[in-house]
Amino acid sequence: MTGAVLLALLPVVILTALGMVLRHSRFLEDAFWPQAERLAYFVLLPCLFFHGLATAQLEALPVRELALTLILSTLAVAALVVAARPLMKLEGPAFTSVFQGSVRFNNYVGVTLAAGLFGAKGIALAAICNAAIVPTVNILCVLVFARYGSARLTRAGLLRQLVTNPLVVGSLGGITFQMLGLGIPAGVEPAMRALGAASLPLGLLCIGAALEFRSVRHWMGPVASSSAMKFLAMPIVTLLVATALGLKGPALTTALLFQALPTASSAYILARQLGGDAALMAGITATQTVLAFAAIPLVLIGLGTVVQP
């Protein structure tokens, strides 16, 4: 298990580091990276989720147990973060960044690692994970922004943020095709598969290019709080829920993997749009991305041994 986890993590490290080199060496213009991230987020990654869910052999997978494990553990940790807010002594916008850092996850890293560990089955499991927690996390984050962010959202604004999220649309579209027994047309399927595959390397390059460490030293407390929730509380709660529901094997490993992922760079974009603390969000994202290279193997290997017979 240890060797498989480290081997799956290696391309993530390489591509993330390459993104940092390309950005700081000015090999590509700065204007390239926001457009590349937009392409990956709005087109490529939704294609990956749609294709993975529409074509997956879900009857052999514990869909219900995996989805419930992820949703219930995410809700539990979200409630814990909100309950702990008075102890953090943060202004509302700063708290929204800590909240996002505690529950939001990086899809690119998760899918890449799941595919590296379990191949096509890993992609199907990752698609189920995204279908379960992408809507859950986005609903929770938008509600927290509505309550604590500096930009107050109307009900129409809340609904628009939820129903237009490309990852939610892609996941629900794939589930719909799966439930109705519809096949992706023969001429479209290879193109969609290729677009989905392109999302992983491009997304990891964008992660490396977006890392920003300058603000970390000013926010040690909030960064530490969100990282503790992300890398300690979330995996432990996930393991407890999974054990209660009888989830095991590759599905359990994938659940633990997704709940130990660093927060996504899209959190920074959301913080700017909805009145959060964008500078703090950048620091949390950068710190968690680095910590994840140690935290993910520790979670998968350490907690995985707890449930082995």
From TrEMBL:
It is a multi-pass membrane protein. The chain crosses the membrane at residues 39-56, 68-88, 123-146, 167-188, 194-211, 278-303. Gene3D superfamilies: 1.20.1530.20. GO terms for cellular component: plasma membrane. The keyword Acyltransferase does not apply. It is found in: Cell membrane. GO terms for biological process: transmembrane transport. InterPro entries: Mem_transp_PIN-like, Na+/solute_symporter_sf. Coiled coil: none annotated. Keywords: Cell membrane, Membrane, Transmembrane, Transmembrane helix, Transport. It comes from the Bacteria. Belongs to the auxin efflux carrier (TC 2.A.69) family. This is Transporter.
